[in-house]
Amino acid sequence: MNISLLDKMIVAAGVCFCVLVYFWFWQTPSTMANGVEIKSPNKTQYYSLFEDRVLNIVGPLGMTQIEIKDGQARFLSSPCKSQICVLAGWLKQSGQISVCLPNAVSLQVLGDEQYDAINF
User: Does residue 66 sit within a domain?
Assistant: First the structure.
């Protein structure tokens, strides 16, 4: 069975089409983040990402510190044992979230709406 030049061109066009469709539908552009939402057991607070500050948030285990600097936010310190929230590092894209479950404090970056799954 011989593969002709036309067969090769059709296969190449199909591969190119699949790559283009992938980038068109599945790659999400990073969206501009403009604020953060911080939830604790007592309240929900909103802050701008454009004002540098260190926040002290009280949770069931004690004080959690959240730092907002240069358009990004992170858990600076937390009284939990695992420190997963601190190890998550800086969050700067809209939709990113980090949670300290033992201390019941969450940090979510806000901005333009972005989908992380296919919606019906």
Answer: yes
* pLDDT tens digit sequence for 52-104: 999 999 999 999 999 999 989 999 999 999 999 999 999 988 889 999 999 99
Range of the domain at 96: 33-111
Total tally of structural domains belonging to the chain: 1
CATH code for position 48: 2.60.320.10
Provide CB contacts within 8 A for 65, sequence distance 6+: 54, 55, 56, 57, 75, 76, 77, 78
Q: Quick check: 82 and 65 in contact, CB under 8 A?
A: no
In a domain, 8, yes or no: no
Q: Is 99 left (phi over 0), alpha (psi -120 to 50) or beta?
A: beta
